[in-house]
């Protein structure tokens, strides 16, 4: 029971993590995750991919290049 209790508390303060790939669905997921993180006062971590040549596939919707 103690382990579950500790995990629950860690989860309650964990960052919100979202993966994006430039697709419309990923943009929707990013918006949802950003809103959730803001409402809960959590850090938002965005994970993205690069193509095999190392070029960035996208930039974030909030104006900063990733």
Structure description:
- By secondary structure, the protein is α+β, with helices and mostly antiparallel strands.
- It has one domain.
- The chain is built from two helices and two strands; from the N terminus they run H-E-H-E.
- The chain has a two-stranded parallel sheet with strand order 1-2.
- Strand 1 (16-19), helix 2 and strand 2 (44-47) form a beta-alpha-beta unit.
- Residues 15-51 form the UspA domain.
- It comes from Nocardia wallacei.
- InterPro entries: Rossmann-like_a/b/a_fold, UspA.
Strand numbers in spatial order across the main sheet: 1-2
Rg over CA atoms, rounded to whole Å, is 15 Å
Question: In percent terms, what proportion of residues is strand?
Answer: 5-15%
Average residue pLDDT: 77
- Structural class comes to alpha+beta
Number of helices: 2
Largest sheet: 2 strands, parallel
Low-confidence stretches: none
Number of domains: 1
For the record, give the distance between the C-alpha atoms at the N and C termini, rounded to a whole number: 41 Å
Secondary-structure element series: HEHE
Number of strands: 2
InterPro entries: Rossmann-like_a/b/a_fold, UspA
Pfam family, one: Usp
Protein name: UspA domain-containing protein
């Amino acid at each position: 029971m103690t382990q579950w209790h500790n995990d629950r508390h860690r989860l309650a303060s964990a960052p919100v993590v979202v993966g994006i790939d430039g697709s419309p669905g990923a943009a929707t997921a990013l918006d949802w995750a950003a809103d959730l993180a803001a409402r809960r006062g959590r850090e938002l971590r965005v994970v993205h991919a690069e193509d095999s040549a190392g070029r960035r596939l996208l930039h974030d919707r909030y104006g900063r290049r990733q």
